[in-house]
Structure formats: C-alpha cells, structure tokens
Amino acid sequence: MKSKIQSFFTALLAFALAPIARYCERNLLMYVVASAAGHPAYSGTFIPEIWSGKLVEKFYDATVFGEIANTDYEGEIASMGDKVHIRTTPTIIIRDYQKGGTLQTQRPESPNKTLVIDRAKYFNFVIDNIDRYQSDIALMDDWAGDAGEQMKITIDTGILGDIYADAAAENSGLTAGRKSASYNMGVTGTPFVVTAANVLDLLTAAGGVADEQNWPESGRWFVMPAWMRVVLMNSDLKNASLAGDETSILRNGRIGMVDRWMIYVSNNVASVTDGAFTAYNCVFGHKSGLTFASQMTEMDSLKAESTFGTLVRGLNVYGYEVIKPESIGHAYVRKG
To answer: pLDDT digits over 22-79, tens only?
Structure first.
C-alpha cells in the first residue's frame, strides 16, 4: 500500500515539475548551442525567455497601386520580359454633310500600347532550424508575410515615383487644363503652396483638369502625402454642414470622396528638395490611365545547402504602363 502511495505522489510530482523541466531543457539548449559569426542571437527575443506569443506589431506603409491601377491586361505572365499588347480605340472623325457632296473616307488607325514585364523583385532569407524549432511562434510564416508586405511597399514607391512624369502636358504645370489652361498645378521652382485655406481649391482645380479631358466621374483618384491629409482635415471640410455629412471629418476621421476624387494617403509619394523646401509629386488620375500586371513566378521553401536551415525565397515579376497619359495628372506641391 505504501509503495502505491509513494508511486502516486512520485508520478504527481513528476507531472507538476514537467513544465519546469521542459523550460530548463529548452533554455539549457538555447544557451549551449552557439551562434556563428554574423548570425543574429534570437535567444530571449524570438526564442522567448518568458511565455509571450506575440511579436511587436509592425506597421507597413499604406500601398495604393492596387486601387489606382487597372489590371485589365494582366493575362498570363510566365517570366520577366513578357509583353502584353494593348489595343487602343481610334478617334472617329465626324464631318458635315451636304447634298450631292463627296464623302471623305477615314481610315482609322488603332496604335498598340505595349506593357512590358521588365521589372522583378525578390527576397531570399534563411531561418536556422534550431531557431525555427525552439521558437513558440511560426517564424517562417511571419517572415514570409513581412517579405510580401515589403514587396508591395517597394513596388508602390516605384510606381508613385515614376508615373507622374508620364502625365499629359495639359494635366500639369501652371497652366493646366486642355481647354482653359487656367489651373495651377505647380512646377519646379514654383510649387503649389498647400494651406487649409486653399487645399480645396487644388482639388477642385484638379477636377477641372479632369473634366476638360472628359474623364468619367467614377473611378477618379488622388494620392496625397500624410501631411496634406492633415491640412485637408483642417479645411472647410471639417464643417459637417459644408461637407454635406452628418458628422464632421474631425469626428469620424474619414475623408472618403472630395469633388469626385477618392482620396488616398501614402507615405510613398515622391518628394524632392526644391530650394529651401521639400516638394511632393502628387499624382491624380482615372483608373483607365494606368495598367499594372504582376505575378509571383517563384515561391520556394527548401533546405539550405550550407547550414541546417530552411531557405525561403520568392520572385515577383511585374510591369506597369501609363496607357492613357490624358488620364493622369500631376500636382507639384509643398506644405505652406
């Protein structure tokens, strides 16, 4: 009887001490296995010394290219260097008719635009198997997710820093406007100085540029830096009655649509030093103006050759093209 009671309490004690034993075993292995030069020490960080299952939340720059570009011509992209040929619609000429007159015949030309898939970005990282197994979170999944987010930010920054130069001449400068040439969108040396008193003037002027190019009223977008949103929030729009809303934008924090523009805020708007100021190349447009095509052609998870680890790598090939310059506008601004 005594031996049974001893056995019971021995088993109970072993069960109670098991978590402590596992913790000691984990931490003993953690500190015994040394890291090679150049390999970061995750002990106490990703391999927790305390029972914490959450990483510090990481904030990513908001990406907008998925909202401002169409993907109508994405098709099947097999590898970098592929081309997508885009047909354009010719402009049909309308002429006056007189009885008995000779008809003039138009032979419409439909030039092609070519979207070249000539850009590629990749990531390639290795996670040591010891770190992978000792961690109580899925490191590989977490890092792969981060790689995907960094990929989007990199592409977004490239697009916003490039396409403004392809805007039609009538959609930028001090005399923008295809018909009136009366809208100030700013130029190098003389950027449009944005203040709470005139930020709405800039947006409505951009609307005038769009109207003179006959853009559809739906599908318009305007990308602005974060500071410009603050200025906009302190403009007359903060008055709910003037904005036509039930609640002030200062109360709900939402801007949404202003003068038919869907407003997007991005920290990836291209900036330059212009004299003593920082100027920003804001882009506005219609979704018909910019096309984008992308495909993740490679995504591998395999054993690393030179160490006991798992290699994770991905290749994204993509291309973008302003196929209708008349549907892209450029506002060169600085903060007042």
So the answer is: 444 444 444 445 667 776 665 555 555 554 555 555 667 778 888 899 888 776 665 5
Strand partners, 222: 263, 284
All structural domains of the chain, each given as residue ranges with its CATH number in brackets, are 55-336 (3.90.1690)
Structure tokens at 318: 């993509």
Contact 203, 282 (CB under 8 A): no
Distance CA 91, CA 182 (A): 26
Local structure of 45: helix, strand or coil: coil
Q: Using alpha carbons, select from 234, 237, 175 the residue that is nearest to residue 208.
A: 175
**Cα separation values, 188 from 59, 165, 272, 334, 336, Å:** 33, 12, 10, 11, 16
Q: Can you tell me the distance from the alpha carbon of 293 to that of 78, in angstroms, rounded to the nearest whole number? A: 11
Predicted TM-score of the model (pTM)? 0.73
Count of alpha carbons within 13 angstroms of residue 137, beta-carbon side: 16
